[in-house]
Protein: Signal recognition particle receptor subunit beta
Amino acid sequence: MEWSSLPSGYSLILALLILVASIAFLVLRQRISTRSSGNDFLILGISDAGKTALLTKLEFGRILPTHTSMESNQFASPRSSSTDNAHTGTNAVRFVDIPGHFRLRPQYQDQLASARGLVFVLDSAQLARNVRDVAMALYDVLVHPAIGAARSPPPILVLCNKVDLFTAAPVATVKKMLETEMNRLRTTRSAALESHESEGDADASSGAAEYLGFEGQDFKFDHIPNEIRFQRLSVKNEDPQVVLDWAEENWWE
Structure:
């Protein structure tokens, strides 16, 4: 039966079905293209948190002698699933260790755009001493346009490392300490931004996106668009399979 010979009612229904199918296809393709722009799981954090140790443990099953990284390192782990990633042509989960030294971090900001997910490693045994540096590093990541303002914000795993040490803070304490410090940091940065705006700084408007969370409320990790999970681990003494499992869970999402 030709299209012209169909009753007008059937023609309308068929046209609507084609329209709905086309819209669904475009939405699906857009979601895939948005997520496929990033294929790496970036390992972030300040120096001596255990990032490179985690990478070597993932790759070799043991920790190799490490030193402060001056350039990024990477490791591709075969996925346990037998189904290849249809739009990347690979079934490997790639982890990239980003140097944590504060002078080197700006060099790797562009790599955040390639992030499918973030593993933020911190030393939970030294957090009381380093909480400001840790909070600043995490804050800078969260306000990056590719992370906090992305159409599909990448998930974040905060890995509380060195829990084998006596001074290690519990996960709940780590979360609370970071929220408190990041709230202070947000106040400081907001005041600095207002100062620049009052002086007519042309670049001040770019800082508007750096406000983290909800205005008028103390900062909470629940306020950010990213799905965030806190996980305790001793990279030295435990199998980091939890990191691989988390990465695979978020490969398609």
